[in-house]
Amino acid sequence: MTAQDPFAGFKAVQKEAWSLFTPMEVFTTPAAAKLVGFAGVAAGQRLLDVGCGTGVVAITAARRGATVRGLDLSPVLIERAREHAQLANLDVDFVDGDAESLPYGDNEFDVVLSQFGHMFAPRPDVAIGEMLRVLKPGGTIAFSTWPPHLYVGRMFAMIGRHLPPPEGVASPVLWGDPKIVAERLAGKAKGVSFEMDMMTPSALSPQHFRRTMEATIGPLIKLVAQYKDEPDRLKSFGAEFEALISEYFDAGQNVMRQQFLMTKARKA
């Protein structure tokens, strides 16, 4: 981030809020393997994981023999990613940085991935431009995102009603709409394909899951903090949130059913 970045303040808030995401890695780890497999990552490839969080995608790719770098806005999550790499005896270069200003050269990577990461950059055109800039012609770009009409997409829409983003910040869930993704990649990538999959976080009840989400998901953390001195509004939001969770909670299996979209394309 620089002083000229109009969203520097927004990103500073994101950096702090997402620092508590670590416990969710137990759920994102299986999805990481699905994205790496979907992208066809192979030994010897140079790969970048954008918005890498705790490194679950990067480390999964490194285990396949790729040479991997990972970048995230949160230094706290980057430190966790480094711990994971050390434990797995893998050499992965993790740095804290901005998806809208990647510190890498043009055409540097064979593969660029992002699991629920780049979608939170405020300007989609800037983020995708950077991801494609560092990707070699013919290289693979692939990412996982949340469709707007399903649980996580609806959750972010609900948050936005209570806590509207700054002017000019695009909704992250638009990255989960295949039509919009195709438009954003038009003329820049070819062979665009999509695949749906499912994440199934465990939970004892909708109330338990709400508590977990409110303690780990950046925008929810900020929203709860905003309502800390307004108990009636906080209670009303909690009831609204639990009602949404209940639509996707499988009481017979003690899991949430969270479908996500994977996109893959080749740089033109």
Automatic annotation (TrEMBL):
Entry GO MF terms: S-adenosylmethionine-dependent methyltransferase activity
Gene3D superfamilies in alphabetical order: Vaccinia Virus protein VP39
InterPro entries: Methyltransf_11, SAM-dependent_MTases_sf
Keyword entries, A-Z: Methyltransferase, Transferase
GO biological process terms on file: methylation
Methyltransferase type domain mapped to chain residues: 48-143
PANTHER family from the UniProt entry: 2-METHOXY-6-POLYPRENYL-1,4-BENZOQUINOL METHYLASE, MITOCHONDRIAL (PTHR43591:SF24), METHYLTRANSFERASE (PTHR43591)
Record's protein name: Class I SAM-dependent methyltransferase
Species of origin: Bradyrhizobium niftali
